[in-house]
Amino acid sequence: MKSRKQLLAVFVTLLLCSATFIGGCATTGLDRSVKTSDSIQEVESEIKNVIVQIDATSLSLDSLVSPENADLKKTFTTYSDNLKNLDDDGQRLIKRMDEMKTNSKEYFEEWNAKGVAYKNPQISTLSEERRGKLAAIYARVPAAGAGVKSTYLAYLSNMKEIQSYLSNDLTPKGIETITPVAQKNIADKSALNASLQTVLTALGEIKSELYSGN
Question: Where are the domains of the chain?
Fold first, then answer.
């Protein structure tokens, strides 16, 4: 009796494992689709956070180098805090964009592999047309974001060097000396924000294609 119960337990375990394995395979495409869609939302959210933080950091630097600034230490601390937040937000954005690129690549590779397996030629054609259209739209995001990383890192590097300079010479004369460099970097935020807006536009096109129902 004990032996029969043990054999039954083994059989049930194997059956459950097989069901889990089959289910996992069947939902792989759906899982990747959801994961890719989620990454769009995450990248969009991170871009908006970075834009807000760029503005906050630039504003705090502008206040720091203002001739009317009566509290250098306080405004320097505010600038340093905003700069750290910008660094953190930027690193998260770069990570999200890399993840989205990887997720979408895997998603469309799997879609392509499944598309050629359809026996119904009409479904096969529809699948290929839809995959091609979406793949082309998704490709606009890395294309739009190609210059974001380098522009962001250059902007951040300059901001950090200004911070380093002032940490050694936080005096009225030190402020006066670094002001032209600071003002140029503040102006440079426009180019960085514009590059981020381009990516947001590309993400908007994907969302429109996926969710508009048109």
Answer: 33-109+120-211
In the chain, what is the greatest distance between 2 CA atoms, to the nearest angstrom?
A: 93
| Residue 86 CA: distances (Å) to CA of 45, 66, 119 | 14, 21, 52
Closest CA to 93 of 42, 52, 34, 155: 42
**Quick check: 202 and 141 in contact, CB under 8 A?**
yes
User: Cα(159)–Cα(157) distance, rounded to whole angstroms?
Assistant: 5
Question: What tens digit of pLDDT does each residue of 59-96 get?
Answer: 999 999 999 999 999 999 999 999 999 999 999 998 88
**In 65-171, which ranges are continuous DSSP H helix?**
72-115, 121-138, 140-144, 148-168
Residue 151 tokens read as: 């522009």
With cut-offs at 50, 70 and 90, classify the pLDDT of residue 163: very high
* pLDDT at site 36: 63
The CA-based angle 76-80-86, given to 5 degrees, is 145
pTM (predicted TM-score): 0.75
Residue 195, both tokens: 């590059």
Cα separation, 51 vs 159, in Å, equals: 15
Report the top-level CATH class of 33-109+120-211: mainly alpha
Name the token pair of 203: 């993400």
Length of the chain: 214
Task: Evaluate whether 32 touches 107 at the Cβ level (below 8 Å).
Answer: yes
